[in-house]
Amino acid sequence: MTDDVLLVHGGTPLEGEIRVRGAKNLVPKAMVAALLGDEPSRLRNVPDIRDVRVVRGLLQLHGVTVGPGEEAGELVLDPSHVESANVADIDAHAGSSRIPILFCGPLLHRLGHAFIPGLGGCDIGGRPIDFHFEVLRQFGATIEKRPEGQYLEAPQRLRGTKIRLPYPSVGATEQVLLTAVLAEGVTELANAAVEPEIEDLICVLQKMGAIISMDTDRTIRITGVDRLGGFNHRALPDRLESASWASAALATKGDVYVRGASQREMMTFLNTFRRVGGAFEVDDAGIRFWHPGGPLNAIALETDVHPGFQTDWQQPLVVALTQASGLSIVHETVYESRLGFTSALNQMGAHIQLYSECLGGTPCRFGRRNFLHSAVVSGPTKLQGANLVIPDLRGGFSYLIAALAAQGTSHVHGIDLINRGYENFMDKLRALGAHVELPAPVES
Ligand code: EPU
């Protein structure tokens, strides 16, 4: 398909300004939260990305009206007439996103049952959903696997419970939050994820009337209430997209101002960016990222749950590390297969060796399971244009960065996947002076 291929002519530094809006990993979840209320909600700073469109479609199938608000990027969600959706219609969304799993709690509260299609999302590891179903069972839901998907029922009102997650999963923490707020009694969640997007979801739920407190030891306590209202909320900015553009600026020796980027949620990234040798300047409206000239530094890097170095920052930064002098060590501890994208970088001229051992830091869950989850990147290496097939969202953006940093032309296949999480990325690339083109369609 020609319209899913991008020609990237590399070698030009990215320079200029782009803007990021609300976080992909918060906005769709805040939209699901609107389902819990009995009044309309207003969500602002909403990016036009595929995950938002998928959730919008699923909400509409369940009787929620979703329309534009007064300002650009505002959605008004009215859940006054929530109803059961046709299974075949829901199933049309199978494989499109991971967010449908978060409809379970809200639908169980509103309708007493829920049907969840097969999930999508990036192929960066096994991505099981066992924690989700285990916590839903603890709340009192029954789950039946049917050929077309999972069917859940709440024979009576769901009850608050005591949960300890085996790992601080972002999705499972959100599952607990979205279920516990209307459950009867108190829920105590230990070993919760505390990513900024989760805090923002808690802010959304608090605006709706929920009672949620967070302790410093990753414990979240939720006191269930009988009803929730609507919310008016501006989504926190996308710190993952911001870091992607920062890495693109560094790898292409460029200078990019990311309007909307926020320092608070990016502190760990900014420290690492500075250690590599990148320069940045923060002001009230955004962050400027640039390559200050001279060699970049090799570093040791370990991904972790917040407040550690976010796994989604890893892939774009690895491209910049191919330009650093010396040996960098990267230990991926969140997703077992998130370094698979590096084989294409090697085809372009990078020197990246993968290991199954936990290199350079703390032993992690993957150490004894033979996953290639550590990398040694030796640089600097000259990258050459290549034929690239996008494997996942962040890996895909990383290929774009590599193609932009490389000499010559790359054919990047599967670029549509990037629309899942990067708003108007083609316009942004062009605004930054990237030489990219969609090949002309072949006449038939
Ligand atoms: N896990 C399980 N069982 C579960 C759930 C998770 O074993 O039931 C494991 C996963 O396999 C993984 C780890 O726990 O090894 C962490 O997964 P988590 O549940 O935290 O991830 P997620 O909720 O599926 C979200 C983001 C990801 C981001 C991670 C980590 C969304 C839609 N996705 O995924 O974002 O990397 O949290 O912060 O919010 C991306 O934006 O490209 C992306 C992949």
TrEMBL record:
InterPro entries referenced in this protein's UniProt entry, alphabetically: Enolpyruvate_Tfrase_dom, Enolpyruvate_Tfrase_sf, MurA_subfamily, RNA3'P_cycl/enolpyr_Trfase_a/b, UDP_GlcNAc_COvinyl_MurA
Chain residues that bind UDP-N-acetyl-alpha-D-glucosamine: R98, D312, V334
Active-site positions on this chain: C122 (proton donor)
Alphabetical keyword list: Cell cycle, Cell division, Cell shape, Cell wall biogenesis/degradation, Cytoplasm, Peptidoglycan synthesis, Pyruvate, Transferase
Subcellular location: Cytoplasm
Molecular function per GO: UDP-N-acetylglucosamine 1-carboxyvinyltransferase activity
Pathway connected to this protein: Cell wall biogenesis; peptidoglycan biosynthesis
Residues with 2-(S-cysteinyl)pyruvic acid O-phosphothioketal modification: C122
CDD domains assigned: UdpNAET (cd01555)
Pfam families, sorted: EPSP_synthase
EC number: 2.5.1.7
Alphabetical GO biological process terms: cell division; cell wall organization; peptidoglycan biosynthetic process; regulation of cell shape; UDP-N-acetylgalactosamine biosynthetic process
Main location: cytoplasm
Record domain Enolpyruvate transferase: where: 9-429
Residue positions binding phosphoenolpyruvate: K24, N25
Reaction(s) catalysed by this chain's protein: phosphoenolpyruvate + UDP-N-acetyl-alpha-D-glucosamine = UDP-N-acetyl-3-O-(1-carboxyvinyl)-alpha-D-glucosamine + phosphate
A GO CC term attached to the entry: cytoplasm
Function: Cell wall formation. Adds enolpyruvyl to UDP-N-acetylglucosamine.
PANTHER family reported for this sequence: UDP-N-ACETYLGLUCOSAMINE 1-CARBOXYVINYLTRANSFERASE
HAMAP family according to UniProt: MurA
Family, as annotated: Belongs to the EPSP synthase family. MurA subfamily.
Protein name as catalogued: UDP-N-acetylglucosamine 1-carboxyvinyltransferase
Organism: Streptantibioticus silvisoli
Gene coding for it: murA
